[in-house]
Specification:
about 300 residues; mainly alpha; two-stranded antiparallel ribbon
Amino acid sequence: MSPVGSALRDRIRSFPSLVNCCTIDWFMRWPDEALEAVSEVVLADAGLFPEQGRQIAKACRVLHQSAEHMSARLERQRRHIYVTPTSYLELLLTYRLLLGSEREKTLRLRAGYERGVQKLLFTADEVQKMRQDLNEKQPRLVQMTEETDYLMEQIEKESTQVVAPKQAQIQQEEANANKQAQEAQAIKVDCDGELAQALPILAKAQAALNTIKSQHIGEIKVLGKPPGPVKRVLHAVCVLCQRKVERTPKKDNPKELEDNWWYTAQKFMAEKNFLQGLLDFDRDSIPDSVMRKIRE
């Protein structure tokens, strides 16, 4: 049992027989040789050189004995501090632990330095190769520079002989293109004006179309002699919808056939989806050929 702490005193108070019926063996301080021998044994596998092991054993002995002297001086002041062999073993084990930690740190630093040195050597080798390659290509570079200068002189000469006439032609074409652009802009302005006039008419036509009902279509298609405006409108509707004109016998000569757009319109109006087709008509995708027929 160690005298360190209050455990020994508490046990003696609780069990007086430990003092009355037992003999106390009090182990005295270890001599210098024992301290050094124990240190050498504990640190034997620490990887130290023999001379290092002896010096460290002496240093640990001196530290332990210094602690004992300090505890003896404090006992005179009635302050009890026990320095036991266990304390000495703890000192040695702590030294081993710190030694291993520092060695690992040193090995990591060494590995980092070695990698850095390898990279520096590799870089130096690559730089040497690049210098050698540059020296080998230097004559070729000089030759290519001379060839480039010669080509530049030839290009300047050819540009003087060829580019000047081409430039005049390009300027003329540019002037023609600008003139055409101005004409196209004028046409665009005219078209925009006509469009501005046509949009209100288109809106009115769309509004009028939305008011047409099926009974209105039925009333028109049974007309024997429809008014001229009605015939022209239905004729235009057939052309816009790309209906093929029906041919019927002439009144004055039944043997001959003529284009009958009113008959074509009557057949068209008799179809089931006639009115819905007019409402869904795509007025933005009318072919040019149809527009020419409408204008005719």
